[in-house]
Amino acid sequence: xxxxxxxxDIAQAAETYNIERWGVGYFGxxxxxxxxxxxxxxxxxxxxxxxxxxxxxxxxxxFPLLLRFQDxxxxxxxxxxxxxRAAIKESGYQGQYRGVFPIKVNQLREVxxxxxxxxxxxxxxxxxxxxxxxxxALAMHQDNESLVICNGYKDPLFIQMALLGCKIGKTVVMVxxxxxxxxxIIEVSESVGIKPYIGIRVRLQSKGAGKWATSGGENAKFxxxxxxxxxxxxxxxxxxxxxxxxxxxxxxGSQIPDIQTVKRAVREAARFYAKIWQLGFPxxxxxxxxxxxxxxxxxxxxxxxxxNYTLTEYTRDVVYNILEILNDEKVPHPNIVSESGRAIVAHxxxxxxxxxxxxxxxKVAKESSDITPTHKLVADLLEIKQNLNKxxxxxxxxxxxxxxxxxxxxxxxxxxxxxxKAQVEVLFWEIVEEVIHSxxxxxxxxxxxRNLLPSLGDQFLCNxxxxxxxxxxxxxxxxFPIAPIHxxxxxxxxxxxxxxxxxxxxxxxxxxxxxxxxxxxxLPLHTLNGKPYYLGIFLxxxxxxxxxxxxxxxxxxxxAHIFLDPDEESGFYxxxxxxxxxIGQVLADVQYDTATIERALKSQIDAAIKADVLKPNEGMxxxxxxxxxxxxxxxxxx
Length: 638
Known about the structure:
By secondary structure, the protein is α/β, with parallel strands linked by helices. Helix 10 (259-278) links the parallel strand 10 and strand 11.
């Protein structure tokens, strides 16, 4: 948080939350101090997110609330395709770009529909990794000039459905992940009389770094070794499928932070492609997999939650490195496929949560002036507090720590009463707060003082579940940008952590992005003023929608899908609202049939009425309240 003496304005707010950097032109702060979104960046209108929230509330949606900016989603598809087209044209590359969206990143029908529609002019296809995803893709895929890429392990039904797609004119490419799988594809295809399109995934030496590094390298879960690759080519020749081997695939990991990793992998894969082509396989596509990063923290570095390259640099490096290797090998340029998912969908979703209350560490410290010392330890702390200044702050801090430790030791031995212990705690944290505020920023603090920042931080209780909406944060430590969506023209007064409404101690957020994009243990937030206070959690569109769990049976949240419309006074309209799960729906997911549990409770109420514990009218009202409650949101509503 900025020093209290530093002037505060909109620019300071944007810097504090690093919005301009991770927002990459999509998010900013408007003159009213509210977070705004530009779904088309500088090419389109700016929307005030608080007004979007207000309209969603008027449509009956409660918190937590997921906002999907569908124009932004379409803009991401167009931007990726245009960048590849520009790199191809600039370099004189002879192939085309034929990207696919990996629907595992977000399988929601409304998301996939928008992506397919936005990608139609570019023949942008779909990638699947399971049977259910393939069933969805075959129905959603309408453009026979675009690809359907099938990754993942395959059984006979998976293979049959891929061949069905081929039969009706689609280019459905089954990527072989292990040698036995190729034999199964050949067996099934011969039995039904349909020739398959084959891709082979090679296991490169190159691999990524960070949380998802195990996706690539020699010990990766998927892919053929060089020896297996040669056996596969012999098998294809034996079954007269040389012309059906269409695609070479590799994948080195998700969220690749360092562009050098991309360059090495692309060059290695291009060399494989050239050698296979020279063996007499015409191929036609090289698939560079996923991994295109998202700069979640805005640091523009090779940190796990960032990336040290731009989209333009990525597309140029992919195209140029393939071109250079194939020119060297005198091999025709193939069409380039990429499976970028995170970079397509992350930016379009914003989760809005309301703050229910604050647990303040130093709230009672405001009454410290009324403390009458009951013990020498208390008197000593009062003296430290009264004499504290910038010259002696470190020494006084150490003395205060010693007194707090002595207090705990005496209390453990039964030598102190509760009143004294409470007074020591109040004074200690007030001293710590004054010491912290005497430094201009956390980096200037001594380590022992800085280490107490999280302990001093207030806990803001938010109406959501980390396990349902931010599973990657809990499981992997993934950083997501978080900021108040309003009041940014006011200076924040709290160093805060966020806690959710689950009963799990892990249901919290205590890692945040600071104004330089690196990790901070607290978030600057405002004092509650009796009015609603809303926080936005940004870049939520990749994986979080699908991977959330039902911890404490908190279900899916409410959604609003927003489109730009210059004819509307507000500049937008909400095309669709999707209610979150009800209590009855999440109970059904864990085998509690609604009718069965209603009957079970009714029998207990009937028994209570017969025993004269309840009057009949009272019992019926209770049963009606239970039945109506099953239709309510799983989240808190006031």
